[in-house]
Amino acid sequence: MVWRIRDRSTFEALRRAGRRARRGHVAVTYVDCGDESAPRVAYAVGRRVGGSVVRNRVRRRLRAAVADISGSLRPGAYLVSAGGASADLPFEQLRADVTAAMTSASGSRP
């Protein structure tokens, strides 16, 4: 099960001490938050991706990709960001980029 990040302190920790990885049009920042049992994820999709309808569709696709791999994620906080051309990627490619970026940022093996 994956939880959402809601507290400011976690976002500050991601900004300050997060490990970053980029694969294709997806960037992930990871920080180990200690004794958590489930990974927590936040999503950032900027205006360069498109209008609000496109950004929301990309965010939903990112959530679906993370849900597919949630069983293999290390506990901690993840910030998943999507770049400009991510709206045009096939879902399989988007999922592969998300998987590679999340495992690389967290230092875990796929």
Instruction: Tell the overall outline.
Output: globular
CATH top level?
Alpha Beta
Give the rounded overall mean pLDDT.
Answer: 89
Distance between the termini: 17 Å
- Tally the structural domains: 1
Q: Can you count the beta strands? A: 5
User: What percentage of the residues does DSSP assign to strands (E)?
Assistant: 15-25%
Determine the structural class based on helices, strands and strand pairing. Answer: alpha/beta
Radius of gyration: 13 Å
Overall CATH architecture: 2-Layer Sandwich
Low-confidence stretches: none
> What's the story with the biggest beta sheet?
5 strands, mixed
Number of helices: 3
Helix content: 40-55%
- Seen as an oligomer or otherwise, the chain set is single chain
Q: Can you walk me through this structure?
A:
- With 110 residues, the chain is of the alpha/beta class.
- It has a single domain, classed as Ribosomal Protein S5, domain 2, CATH 3.30.230.10.
- It contains three helices and five strands.
- A five-stranded mixed beta sheet has the order 1-4-5-3-2, with helices on both faces.
- β4, α2 and β5 form a beta-alpha-beta unit.
- α2 crosses α3.
- The chain is globular and about 35 Å long.
- The chain starts with a strand and ends with a helix.
Task: List descriptors.
Ribosomal Protein S5, domain 2; alpha/beta; globular; 3 helices; 110 residues
List the helices and strands and how they pair.
Blueprint (H helix, E strand, L loop, with lengths): L2 E2 L3 H10 L1 E5 L2 E6 L8 E6 L6 H18 L7 E6 L8 H16 L4
Parallel strand pairs: 1-4, 4-5
Antiparallel strand pairs: 2-3, 3-5
Helix pairs in contact: 2-3
